[in-house]
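Deliverable D5.2: sample structural annotation.
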Amino acid sequence: MPPKSSATPAKEASPLRVVQAAVQSRQFAPVYYLHGDDDFLKDGAVRDLLDAAIDPSTRDFNLEHRRGADLDAESVASLLTTPPMLAERRAVVLRDVTGLKKAPRAQLDKYLQRPASDTLLVLVSPAGTKADSALANASVSLDFAPLTPERVRRWITHHATTVLQVDIADDASQLLQQAVGNDLQLLAAELDKCASYVLGAHEQVGEAPAVRASIDVDAVSAVVGVRRGETVTDLLDAVAQHDARTAVTLVGHVLSQPKVTAVQVVMMLSTQAFALSFGRARRDAGVPTNRLPQEYFAFLKETGGYPGRPWGEAASAWTKHTEQWSAAACERALSLLLETDMALKETRVSNEEQVLMSLVLALCATGQERKRRRE
């Protein structure tokens, strides 16, 4: 195993920060191994490493992109032993590295024992594959797991300000995430449209070049086609409040948004129902209301549930509505959600909007008896 370079990260460092540190310092490890389930982040990391490490004027001579399944032992040996041409460094990106057959893999393993100092080797495994421990031990191993909703919100701001060179308001970032979700590739596409929209408006009104364009809520609404108060988060809150009139009105708006399906909405509603059931049990056990946000954070961390929004926002909303849910109402809600999930996946009797509308009406009705008892 080769000695780690000065670019080797501490174990707790996030992969994005490791790549950023290497790019800023222009000091690179000889081998990086990128794995995990977020291919968008991996592609961005590969691009950033190459842009910083390889001189654009000699890129045609000093950059190779290959796939593991396409290579034999001789090809791997040639790729890894070719010196840079008219530059201090060359780069090899080997995708689907775990697809290498036995002989080419043996060549790679041999190279990893003493990697060349003038070659940047980037090994990439696709999403859905298990990390290769031997490759991880012989490289700077970077696990690109999907970002948490909180980190997605920060990523939106970072991508807008650094890649697109526009600002974005906090409420615009929130609305965009509520409308699009946490798919970075889709978010990047929508952000690009929003940036083009505000830059075009910027030019039309003759703003001075020094004035930086900014994406606001109106821009997101115009481009993505969603307004505040019409997102899946608003639907979740309406159900949590047993507000049937608002919830039914929102179903059509939510299902018309990019890549939103009834199954996804049921999944988010199920996370919310489990959380409210958990919160009800904690309150019945004597936990004070002001402790519920911490309890909900622990719940999300332990279960890995998908709340459809940043954890802090979810915990705050659930804390606010816990008292409106009895243990019986939570149990009934979970039964309804299971039945709906099965109906959506197994039959075509009704369309998604009809099925989801029936569900939210039934969920909101679970709170009517508790409401009447309070009155």
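Annotation notes: Strands lie at 31-35, 63-67, 90-95, 119-124, 140-143, 167-168, 214-215. Confidence is low (pLDDT under 50) at residues 1-11.
The annotation will be released with the project's public dataset once the embargo ends.
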